[in-house]
Structure formats: structure tokens, C-alpha cells
Amino acid sequence: MLMKNITIRNKKELKKVMGLQITKKIKYLGIWLTAKCSTIKDNYTKLFNQIKKDLEKCGTLQLSLLGRIATIKVNVVPKILYLFQTTPTKLDKKIFRELNRIITKFVWAGKKAQVKVKDLQDSKSRGGLGLPDWELYHKAAILVWIQDWIKLRKKRILSIEA
């Protein structure tokens, strides 16, 4: 059981009465949750390390530029989107820069970039290659949460999933 805002004495009583193990963090649907919201961002570090490993494996394949971008869209986007959607936290620009650095390194096979990341992220109709713009994806995920919260205010009785 994960506890927040409970004294040590109360934790001990709950543990004694209920017989549950009290932990500092739990993993729920692949995301580590703690009593401190600031540590939720640690999930990004773990995910970035996993993405690096996955892209290193794919880097051994002889893929074209478009093939590498397709690999990003298929392998990386779902993982990042899942984290964006399940942890509605404000992220620093450095997280997006780090993600862009990882992606750029893979797209250009470790060589010097030939085109700016923003140009690659532009739509195909505008001459880009449709590489995901992580900041826009994150903002969209946050807006979905805000939309849900606004809709909740209109209800008199809220049902909570258990």
C-alpha cells in the first residue's frame, strides 16, 4: 500500500490492523507511482534508457531515412504517448531536448544531422518528414486531461473507478 500525508504512527497502526505491506513506491500499469509527485518524472529517465536500447538494436539494420522515421513512429511514439497520457505533469524543455537528441542520433545513424529537427518535424505537405514534435504531443495529452476535468465539473455526482 502506498501512503501519502499519513503520520508514521498511523502507518504502523494501519499495517497492524490491515496486515498490508506499506511501500514507498508501486508500479501500476508500467508506471512507478510515489507519494511525491516530483518523482513521477523519473519514469521518463527509465523510458528514455529503454528507448535508447531499442533504437540501438534497430540501428544495426540498414534502414533508409524514411525507414528510420517509420521506426520512430511505430516503436517510440506509442511508449511516449502512453507516458504523456498517464502522467499529466509539467515537463521541462530539457526532457524534450533529450528526447530529440536520442531520436536525431538514431535518424542520422550517429552522424552529423543533415537537416534541423524542426524541419523533420514539419508536415509532409510542407516539406517535412512528419517526425513527431514531442512538445505538441505532450500539450495535446495535457489538453485531453483538462477537457475531462472541465466535463467533470458539470456533473453533480462523480463516479470513481475502483
Question: How do the helices and strands line up, and which of them pair or pack?
Answer:
Layout lengths: L7 H11 L6 E4 L2 E4 L7 H18 L5 H22 L6 H15 L9 H5 L12 H20 L9
Antiparallel strand pairs: 1-2
Helix pairs in contact: 2-3, 2-4
Name the average pLDDT: 85
Q: Show unreliable segments.
A: none
- The CA-CA distance between the termini, in Å, is 15 Å
**How many strand segments?**
2
Commentary on this structure:
With about 160 residues, the chain is mainly α. The protein has a domain at about 40-150. It is about 55% helix and about 5% strand. The protein has helices at about 10-20, 40-60, 65-85, 95-105, 115-120, 135-155, and strands spanning about 25-30, 30-35. A two-stranded antiparallel sheet has the order 1-2. A hairpin with a 2-residue loop joins β1 and β2. The mean pLDDT is about 85.
Short description:
The protein has about 160 residues and is mainly α. About 55% of the residues lie in helices and about 5% in strands. It is built from six helices and two strands, in the order αββααααα.
